[in-house]
Structures are given as C-alpha cells and as structure tokens.
Amino acid sequence: MIIKKIVIINILFMIFFSSYAMAAQNWKENRSRHFIIYYKNAPKEFIKAVEESAEGYYYSIVKDLGFSRDQLWTWDDRAQIYIYDNEDDYLVSSRQAGWSSASTRIGSRAIQTYPAAHGFFDSLLPHELGHIIFREYVGVSSDLPLWVDEGVAMYQEKAKRWGADDEVRKAIAENRFIPLSELGRTRLTSATDREVVNLFYAESASVIRYLITEHGAFKFLNFCQNLKKGLRFEDALEKAYYRFQTIDDLNKAWMGYLKK
Ligand SMILES: [Zn+2]
Predict the structure, then answer these.
(1) Is 204 within 8 Å of 154 (Cβ atoms)?
(2) Ligand 1 centroid vs 245 CA: distance in angstroms?
(3) How far is the CA of 127 from the centre of ligand 1 (A)?
(4) pLDDT tens track for 67-84
(5) Residue 199 alpha carbon to ligand 1 centre in Å
(6) Model pTM?
(7) Cα 6 to ligand 1 centre (Å)
(8) How many domains does the chain have?
C-alpha cells in the first residue's frame, strides 16, 4: 500500500511539474471576462478574434439554454482555451487521436485546439463551449448519457442544429435508427464505424433540439435545474416533462414529431 502511495504521489508531482513547466515556458496569456486564452506563436489578431467570438458565444449559449433566467447561476472562474501553433503541435502535446481537431474533457474547463482546425469559429468553438457551459451549470458529477452532453454541444453549432432532423429521418426510413435506450449504451471509440458515429451525433443533436424548441427553453432549464439538484437523469427528465416517464416515452414522442 505504501509503495503504491509513493508511486501515486510521484506521478502526481510529475504531472504537476510538467504542466507547470509547460505553462511557464511556452504560453502567452490573453485574459477576457470569461476566458483565458493561452497561445504560443499565433498572431495577436487571431487571438483577439477568438476572444471576441468566445465571449459572444458565451452569452448566446447561456441565453439559448435558458441559464440567464436563473438568478442563482454564476460563472465563477474563467475557462481556458489553449491555442496550439498547428495540427502537429496540438496532436503531440494534447495526445489526441489523429482525427481530433479540438477537445475538452467533459467536466473540464479547458479547450485545446489550433488555428487551422476545420470549422474553428462556426463549429468547433461553439461546440466545445457548449460542453463547458452546460456542465458548469448541471455539475460535473451528473451521470448523463453521452448523447445529452453531445446533443447540447451540437445544438450550439447552428448549421448542424437544423440539418440533424433530416439525417435522423433518413436513418428511420432505412432502418438504421438507434433508439435512445440503445444510444445511451453506445460507446464511441476510434474503432467505431464512421456511419454509427455520424448517426450518434445527428440523433443527439435532433433530440436535444426537439426538447428545447418543441417544449420550450423553460422546461429544458427546469430539467437542468433538476440535474443540478442531484436528481438522476430519468427523474430529472420526468419532473420537467411530465409526458416522459421513461426514456422510451421520449423516444416515441420524438420519433412521432420527426414523422410528422
Ligand atoms: Zn462534443
């Protein structure tokens, strides 16, 4: 046990000092109201554009999810955006899979990305900020199906918000549709079939959009408040949307809406 403890402490020290050394050596800082942007050699104009964009998204996401109506909601500390110089720098330093262009761990307040990442301002930034703001509100410890987190993040990407319904309708017509109960058990890994990954994201985006736009931001806020209070996912859903006693009720209503 003691040996184990020493090893763990050593590892913790190594992580602490390597991240400290990394921060001390390479990163420049740009602070704004809600964010600290860390960067190396990216041009100052680009960093200013990121700052403006991130601050703008902060307000629109908070408003879209209804969080601005909650008097008790506070955003206590700044989130961090790490801008690596280029794709190689990002992949090597952040240790992400080759297809990744941005990342935030669910529950973390840091985004890692690089300037030339595909869809930087329109997709990537609102998506990752959606993850951070949603979890900042409902709490890190809420045990949610991945499609809830991803659906909320996708909802912030305006282009995908509208396109997702058609993709899901197509999947229903072609018998590829994954019911929500099954979607909740789907694990995405680098080995997952690309078509399944795309459908996973499309369904997540579509069902969250259905909850927010068809039932109103007020109910969605109520659902989030229930999660914040520590209710289990299905209880939080049922308390906010009386019609959905189970996940299958939601699945049925959402499919009915798509078929209309
Ligand atoms: Zn995501």
Answers:
(1) yes
(2) 27
(3) 6
(4) 988 877 788 889 999 999
(5) 14
(6) 0.86
(7) 36
(8) 2
